[in-house]
């Protein structure tokens, strides 16, 4: 298997027992939708089943999944752990400040302790205190990280504070590239990872969300500068979560995990570009997508070195 610093071979996922779209985030997350055809119990059961199947599918292709349960009722978005922590080569972990009060409860010490036990963790930098100053930086939802070129891409929003991002980039050695991005109606896009995905040999991005033409070209050029193929996504494809994908390293090479809805939105020519370097791995998560996030949001990639298994 060819190693890629961009595509982790392990992820953390959360299986919720009381999932429902978060009323606290509905105002600024236009990707959220309501389902009046099912009861809350049915929705929660479907979400639980979708996470179970997704984790099993990832394991089948050789991606290690650390699956945690969330049996509480106070954390409706806990299925999206990539927003509150990220991991980085060299043994570094970041914990992030969240915009919505009920999302701040998603942070879990048992997950950080598992990372320390199973992987080589050198330090944990906790930015969550910035919430007291009204600053938010929602992890790899707010930022899409190019681990190869050390660039952090971020669309401006109330979930992405530039001061907090500068601190992260200084600590973790990323160059910040910040831009304005909006949907067809001119509304700010709440998270950068719904409009772009950076893989090892390709990048998918909704360039038309960046209204400033000069900035749009700059972002495109930076994504392409190390030879990546650029897959340009339309507004419609972004609405179908085509940008909310994550490249992972499986047993037989790299895979691109995305939702079934996202894959159906891609054109054949776009699929061919991706398949030059990664196998498409669709995961059906329509209930999870009610909350305004998709497959990429469901996985916190582990960019840490595993500890050798202890004997005896």
Automatic annotation (TrEMBL):
It comes from the Bacteria. Pfam families: DDAH_eukar. NCBIfam families: citrull_CtlX. Coiled coil: none annotated. This is Amidinotransferase. InterPro entries: Amdntrnsf_FN0238 (IPR014541). It comes from Gluconobacter potus.
